[in-house]
Design a protein that fits this description.
Mean pLDDT: 87
Helix content: 40-55%
Order of helices and strands: EEHHHHHHEHHEHHEEHE
Oligomer: single chain
Shape: globular
Strand content: 5-15%
Low-confidence stretches: 1-26
């Protein structure tokens, strides 16, 4: 149950292979989705998933469930990607070839020391041809340009917005702060989860039950995470659960399928809150990122409303 297990955001690799596994995943048959006249195969979606997430870091018995959790996120991002590229084509916009060529040369220089042969060797390992990779780079440049035009350039951050965000989120800027959390991640039936919950209610030590039944990496420590940053270690759903709890309270959450989470909020530590002027740039960036994500969602939601999208159940 590390940061990357509950991570629910996805940034496609800039070069489309930075996180790729040396040996690709097995192939999958079928169609994942139709987006207007574009078809996304299940194989394409799964390759994106495996190329962007290192599942080898997850215990084998948890990998299948993690694929189920990540798949809809990856597919959603693929759909957004396709819709933005289609919007680019429909507007008649054109990016000069020299911009794409410059980006390709920058990647080769920065990531491969100017050695194009090294790049091609890496591409061969992930079963991607040079022209396919170059097209991916072109698409990424287009995506960045489109987001800059339709999202970033429309965002204006005022001093008032910065001050209001700081006032509403002061504690998040505190130094040496954190939440002391203990967890039990169970793979089993609802009845088994009920039994564990009842055992805790009856006074059984949390540490003992975690060591015996939990399947996350903190099991050997009795499920104890110590003081941690919630945003750096848990998914939004788990964070929302923990933040709704009082100190000393215990709650449970069905994670999907056979996975059940029991969380205990032991304590909260809030450090010194720096004055706004000393962290103005950071707060301003946080406000900008928040506004950008909201604007991006509004934009892509609009693209989706105008598009024909059919998503198929992968049945895995």
């Amino acid at each position: 149950m590390r940061k990357w297990i509950f991570f629910l955001g996805l940034i496609f690799s800039t070069y489309c292979f930075a996180q790729a596994a040396e040996s690709g995943p097995s192939y999958y048959d079928g169609i994942a989705a139709h987006i207007n006249d574009k078809v996304v195969t299940l194989d394409t979606a799964m390759r994106e998933l495996y190329n962007n997430f290192d599942l080898t870091r997850i215990p084998p018995h948890q990998q299948a469930q993690k694929v189920k959790e990540l798949y809809p996120i990856v597919l959603d991002l693929l759909i957004d990607r396709i819709l933005i590229l289609q919007e680019y084509e429909s507007t008649g916009m054109t990016l000069p070839d020299k911009i794409i060529a410059s980006r390709i040369q920058s990647i080769i220089a920065e990531e491969f020391g100017g050695n194009e042969a090294l790049l091609k060797e890496r591409l061969k390992k992930i079963h991607l041809t040079y022209p396919e990779w170059a097209e991916k780079v072109r698409e990424n440049v287009i995506l960045q340009a489109m987001r800059q035009t339709y999202v970033n350039e429309k965002i204006k951050i005022s001093p008032r917005m910065v001050r209001e965000h700081y006032t509403a989120n002061k504690e998040s800027y505190a130094t040496s702060s954190g939440t002391h959390v203990r967890t039990i991640l169970l793979q089993g039936t609802t009845v088994q989860a009920d039994n564990l919950w009842q055992a805790l209610e009856d006074g059984q030590p949390f540490e003992k039950i975690a060591k015996e039944y939990s399947i996350d990496e903190k099991a050997s420590l009795g499920g104890d995470w110590g003081f941690v940053s919630l945003t750096e270690n848990f998914s939004p759903a788990v964070i929302e659960l923990i933040e709704s709890m009082k100190t000393g309270e215990r709650k449970r959450l069905h994670m999907g399928g056979e996975f059940h989470l029991i969380v205990e909020k032991v304590a909260v530590k809030i450090g010194e809150i720096p004055p706004l002027q000393s962290i103005w740039t950071k707060v301003e960036n946080d406000v900008y990122n928040k506004e950008a994500e909201e604007a991006y969602k509004v934009w892509t939601d609009g693209l989706r409303k105008r598009a024909y999208i059919k998503i198929n159940d992968p049945q895995f």
